[in-house]
Amino acid sequence: MDILPTEKLLDLSGKVAIVTGGAMGIGYGVAIRLAQAKAKVMIADLDLNAAAKSAEEIESYGFAAKAVKVDVSSEEDVKAMIAKTVETFGSVDILVNDAGIYPTVPVENMTSSDFDKVIAVNLRGVFLCVKYGSEQMIIQKKGGRIINITSIDALHPSSVGLAHYDASKHGVWGFTKNVALELAPHKIWVNAIAPGGIATPGVAKLQKGTQTAVNMEKMLEGFLAKIPMHRMGEPDDIGKVALFLASDMASYMTGTQVVVDGGVLLS
C-alpha cells in the first residue's frame, strides 16, 4: 500500500470535469469542490448566463472553469457539450449528471406532457450524457468517473406529487448499476449520490408556493421534521461526496449509490 497524504488522494490535477445543472444548487456545490481539488470544470446548464456567472465566480477563487449551454434532453446539445469541453480543456475525465427537474403535480392532474418532460430531462438526459461522455472517455483510454445524482426518491417516495420524478430517479439508479457493469472493463467507475432534502434555489422557489394541488410549504415542513439531524442539507454536503467519488478515495467503488440525507430514510 502506498502511503499518500490525504490531499494527494483528493487531488484532481490534470482532470477535466463536466457538471450538468452546474449553475446553481447542488450542481454548483459539486462544481466548486471539484475545482478546489484542481479539476478544470465545465459548467453545463440550460441557463447560460447563470452558468457563466458561476464559472466566473469559481475563476475568481483562482480555479479553472468555463460555461456551456446544454439541454440534456437534446442529443445534439449533449454531443456539442462534450465537443466543447474537449476543445476547451482537452479531455473529459469526470462527468457529474445533476441536471434535473421536479415539478410537483398529483397523478390525477398530471398530463402526459408533464410526465414526458420529467423523464426526458431526468432520465433520457442522463442516458445521453453517459453515452457520449463515456464514449469520449473510452477514446482517451484513461478511465474515468461518472456520478449520477439520483435522490432518496430512488429508494422511497418523499411526497405526493412526485410520481413522475420518482419514476425517473428509480430509472437513473437502475441505469447506473447496469452501465457500471458495462464500463468497468474500460476503468470507468459509475456511481450515484442520492440526496435528501437540500436547501437550493429550486427548493426555495417551491416553498414560496406553486399553483398545484399539493401544499408545498406544509409538505416541506413535514419533511424537515423527519430529519434526525434537524436540518436541511447544503449543496456542499453533496459536493464533498461527489469529490470523494471522483477521487482516488473511491478507487474500489462502482455501481454504488451513496445516500446523503441527514438520516431521513431512517424515519
Summarize the model shown.
This protein has 267 residues and is α/β, with parallel strands linked by helices. It contains nine helices and seven strands.
Distance between the termini: 40 Å
Rg measurement, Å: 18 Å
Number of strands: 7
- The overall average pLDDT, rounded, is 94
- The share of residues in helices is 40-55%
Shape: globular
- Estimated share of beta-strand residues: 5-15%
Count up the helices: 9
Give unreliable regions as ranges: none
How would you classify the helix and strand content by structural class? alpha/beta
For the record, the count of structural domains works out to: 1
Q: Strand order within the widest sheet?
A: 3-2-1-4-5-6-7
Structure, explained:
The chain is an alpha/beta fold and 267 residues long. It has a single domain (13-198, 234-261), classed as NAD(P)-binding Rossmann-like Domain (Rossmann fold, 3-Layer(aba) Sandwich). The chain has helices at 6-9, 25-36, 48-60, 75-89, 112-140, 163-183, 201-207, 216-225, 235-246, and strands at 16-20, 40-45, 65-69, 94-97, 144-149, 188-195, 257-260. Strands 3-2-1-4-5-6-7 form a 7-stranded parallel beta sheet, sandwiched between helices. Strand 2 (40-45), helix 3 and strand 3 (65-69) form a beta-alpha-beta unit. Helix 5 runs parallel beside helix 6. It starts with 5 loop residues before the first helix and ends in a 7-residue tail after the last strand. The relative contact order is 0.15. The mean pLDDT is 94.
